[in-house]
Specification:
9 helices; Rossmann fold; alpha/beta
């Protein structure tokens, strides 16, 4: 899905009229199938950007276009149809505690099935093999029929990502998918997510606090600071100086081991030249 932002500004939904903008006027272009990581300190506007792209927050100024369409200029039925092509995976998945994992995962298919089918699936889930395959990619196949309230926080987060795979959206918006995962699980989950988005041809926008993981996994990095775009660069061009400027007021977030990319190793010394006289 192609994304075009022209001076897009967004105010927090709980803010009073005239309050400061959570997202400053922003200009941005994303091509169909592109994968982008959004980084920045807490409160920078990363989650607000995802909700704006998901057509969940009406712009306070500027325009948003998805495949050339302004969502807020569409009739309600067409807007709902467009929202069915998107999937927003929040940091804490909204999973009913007494629900079975299989039902929670297959809920990602609801925008594409009839009302009767969706009601029936609450009691007799269909497409169980699809849910099982999605869970297996996150090492959760053994939790297929477990109850959500029996899962750990990291397992719930991975169930939310499995639901995103089942949804097969054209635009996948993922908010901090690694916050409850250990480093090994985080790397596996992000690799699964980016690979699935590529295979499905979906545009992927992912917010991350793990800067090294973002630089390793995404070809393009957006840096947000105070609701404004601080930089938009290929990951290979993001330097420690860019990051220190981005987190200038939150340097504690960069003090953790691995928060900055490692310095480039010095060039290897040339071997000594041995001259032999004959």
């Amino acid at each position: 899905m192609r994304i075009e932002l022209d001076g897009l500004a967004v105010r927090h939904p709980a803010a009073a009229r005239g309050a400061a903008l959570a997202l400053q006027p922003l200009a941005l272009r994303l091509s169909p199938g592109e994968q982008v990581a959004v980084i920045g300190p807490s409160g920078a506007g990363k989650t607000t950007l995802l909700h704006a792209l998901a057509c969940a927050l009406r712009p306070a100024g500027g325009t948003l276009r998805l495949d050339g369409r302004d969502p807020w200029a569409l009739a309600q039925r067409k807007l709902q149809r467009l929202r069915g092509e998107l999937f927003l995976a929040p940091q804490v998945p909204p999973l009913p505690p007494r629900q079975r994992v299989v039902t929670a995962v297959l809920a990602g298919r609801l925008p594409h099935v009839s009302l009767w089918h969706s009601l029936r699936s609450l009691f007799y889930p269909t497409a169980i093999p699809e849910a099982d395959a999605a869970l297996a990619k996150f090492d959760l196949a053994d939790k297929l029929f477990a109850r959500v309230d029996r899962l750990s926080g990291g397992e719930r987060q991975r169930v939310g990502l499995a639901r995103a795979l089942v949804a097969r959206p054209r635009l996948l918006l993922v908010d901090e998918p690694l916050s409850a995962l250990d480093p090994a699980r985080a790397a596996q989950a992000l690799e699964t997510l980016t690979s699935a988005a590529h295979a499905q041809g979906a545009t992927l926008v992912c917010t991350l606090h793990d800067v090294p993981m973002a630089l390793r996994s995404f070809p393009r990095i957006l840096g947000l600071q105070g609701g404004a775009l601080a930089f938009d660069l290929p990951s290979a061009e993001v330097t420690p100086e860019h990051l220190r400027a981005l987190y200038a007021q939150h340097l504690d977030e960069l003090d953790k081991p691995g928060s900055l990319p490692p310095p480039e190793p010095p060039p290897a010394a040339s071997p000594p030249v041995v001259m032999t006289c004959r």
